[in-house]
Write a structure and sequence with these properties.
Layout lengths: L10 E2 L2 E2 L12 E5 L2 H8 L4 E8 L2 E8 L2 E7 L4 H14 L4 E10 L9 E9 L14 E2 L2 H14 L3 E8 L21 H7 L2 E5 L2 H10 L3 E11 L4 E2 L2 H28 L4 H11 L11
Parallel strand pairs: 3-6, 3-7, 7-12, 8-10, 10-11
Antiparallel strand pairs: 1-2, 4-5, 5-6, 7-11, 8-9, 8-12, 12-13
Helix pairs in contact: 2-5, 3-6
C-alpha cells in the first residue's frame, strides 16, 4: 500500500503514481497530446514501438522514429492534468523536450479552420500555474521549439500561423461559450482576446510552458484550428482528420529536427545555433498570420 500522506511525490513501487511509468521507460523527446487515442495515431508512424501503457486517461508509447528514441503521452484535457503529467515525467527523465500536438479554436479571421498555429507564448487564463509562480509570470514557448516547428511546417508545405495562445481552464464558460442552462460570467471573452491579437484558444499550453520553463526544459505547441470563433465554423469528418494528421506530421518533424541538431552539435551551443540558422533549414520564415 502506498502512503499518499508522505511529503514526497507518491509512487507505486518505482513507478510514478498517475503515469504508471518508471525511469528508462520514457524517451527524452516527448510529444504530448490530449486525446489518449491520438497516441496510437502518432506512434503508428514510428519504425518501432517498445512500450505501450495506459493508466487513467494517460496513455503512453515509447519507440523509435528515424533513429530517434521518442515517446508520446496523452495528458487528458486541461492545465491541471498537464501539471500532473509534467511533474511526474520530470521525476524520471533528465532533460526532456516537449512538443504539444493539440487542437484549438482560432480567434483571428485570417486563420482558416484546418490551419496550424504555433504558439509563441500563452495567456494564463488558468490558475494551476499560480501555485508555482506569480500571476504576472509569463508563459513562453522555448525559441528552439518554435523555430523547429516553423521549419517543419515550411518543409511540409502546410498553412501555419505563429502567435499568442490563450489557455483556459475549461471548455464552456471559461472560453465564453453561451449555454442554455448555465450562466456565463465572461461572454465576450473570445472577442476580447481577438482584439488583443491572440491567435487561438485552448486548455493546456500555459501550464506546459511555465512548468517546462521553471525546470529549464524546452517546450512548444502546435495546434490545428478545429474551430473558427469569429465565423462559428467547426471542422468535421475527413477535414478534421486531415488537420489532425498535418498537426501530427508537424510535431514529429519538429521534434526530430531538434534531436538531429542536438546530436550533431552536442556540447557546443554556438555551433548548434549556427546549424539551426544555416545548415538545417535556413533562416526562420517571417511570422505569418496572428
Amino acid at each position: 500500500m502506498t502512503d499518499l500522506s508522505q511529503a514526497d511525490a507518491p509512487r507505486t513501487g518505482n513507478r510514478q503514481y498517475h503515469i504508471a511509468l518508471e525511469r528508462g521507460e520514457l524517451a527524452e523527446y516527448i510529444l504530448l497530446v490530449g486525446d489518449p487515442d491520438r497516441v496510437a495515431k502518432v506512434s503508428e508512424r514510428w519504425d518501432e514501438v517498445e512500450l505501450r501503457r495506459s493508466n487513467r486517461e494517460i496513455t503512453t508509447a515509447t519507440g523509435t522514429y528515424r533513429g530517434q528514441r521518442i515517446s508520446a503521452m496523452s495528458t487528458g484535457m486541461g492545465p491541471d492534468n498537464v501539471e500532473i503529467v509534467l511533474a511526474e515525467v520530470m521525476e524520471i527523465t533528465d532533460a526532456a523536450t516537449f512538443i504539444r500536438i493539440g487542437s484549438s479554436g482560432a480567434l483571428q479571421p485570417e486563420i482558416e479552420i484546418g490551419d496550424l498555429i504555433i504558439s509563441l507564448g500563452a495567456v494564463r487564463l488558468e490558475n494551476t500555474t499560480d501555485y508555482y509562480v506569480h500571476p504576472g509570470y509569463p508563459a513562453i514557448a522555448h525559441r528552439d521549439v518554435v523555430w523547429a516547428l516553423e521549419s517543419a511546417c515550411r518543409e511540409l508545405g502546410v498553412r501555419y500561423h505563429v502567435g499568442l495562445t490563450a489557455t483556459a481552464p475549461g471548455f464552456y464558460a471559461p472560453q465564453g461559450r453561451a449555454m442554455r442552462t448555465l450562466p456565463v460570467r465572461y461572454p465576450e471573452l473570445a472577442e476580447e482576446l481577438r482584439r488583443q491579437r491572440v491567435a487561438n484558444l485552448e486548455m493546456e499550453s500555459s501550464a506546459l510552458f511555465v512548468l517546462a520553463g521553471l525546470a529549464g526544459l524546452r517546450a512548444g505547441t502546435v495546434c490545428a484550428a478545429y474551430a473558427q470563433r469569429v465565423t462559428g465554423l467547426f471542422l468535421e469528418g475527413a477535414a478534421k482528420e486531415a488537420a489532425e494528421q498535418r498537426c501530427i506530421d508537424a510535431g514529429l518533424a519538429g521534434i526530430h529536427l531538434l534531436w538531429e541538431i542536438d546530436h550533431a552539435q552536442a556540447g557546443d551551443p554556438r555551433a548548434r545555433i549556427s546549424a539551426m540558422m544555416s545548415g538545417k533549414g535556413g533562416e526562420p520564415a517571417p511570422q505569418t498570420g496572428a
